[in-house]
């Protein structure tokens, strides 16, 4: 299976979003912090990931 640059970037964005969500749940479950403490960081991170994804989708695939 050939992975294009577009596919690799999409996979990276998906992994980044999953890792961010996992870190937030891990912080909340272990009592290190509450979700309320990190909600702004989470929202801005997910917004940045969404903007990056939209820009990647609008750009031509460079294969």
Could you explain how this protein is built, in words?
The protein has 63 residues and is mainly α. It has a domain at 15-58. 78% of the residues lie in helices and 0% in strands. The chain contains two helices and no strands. The chain has helices at 5-29, 35-58. The longest helix is centred in the N-terminal third of the chain and has 25 residues, at 5-29. The model has no long low-confidence stretch (mean pLDDT 77). Keywords: Membrane, Transmembrane, Transmembrane helix. The chain crosses the membrane at residues 39-57.
Outline of the structure:
Keywords: Membrane, Transmembrane, Transmembrane helix. The protein has 63 residues and is mostly helical. The chain has two helices and no strands.
- Relative strand content: under 5%
Q: Which structural class best describes the helix and strand composition? A: mainly alpha
Low-confidence stretches: none
The proportion of residues forming helix, as a percent range, comes to over 70%
How far do the termini sit from each other? 14 Å
Largest sheet: none
Average pLDDT works out at 77
Gyration radius over CA: 15 Å
Q: H/E series, N to C?
A: HH
Keywords: Membrane, Transmembrane, Transmembrane helix
Transmembrane segments: 39-57
Features:
single chain; 63 residues; mainly alpha; 0% strand; elongated
Write the layout of secondary structure elements.
Blueprint: H1 5-29, H2 35-58
Transmembrane segments: 39-57
Keywords: Membrane, Transmembrane, Transmembrane helix
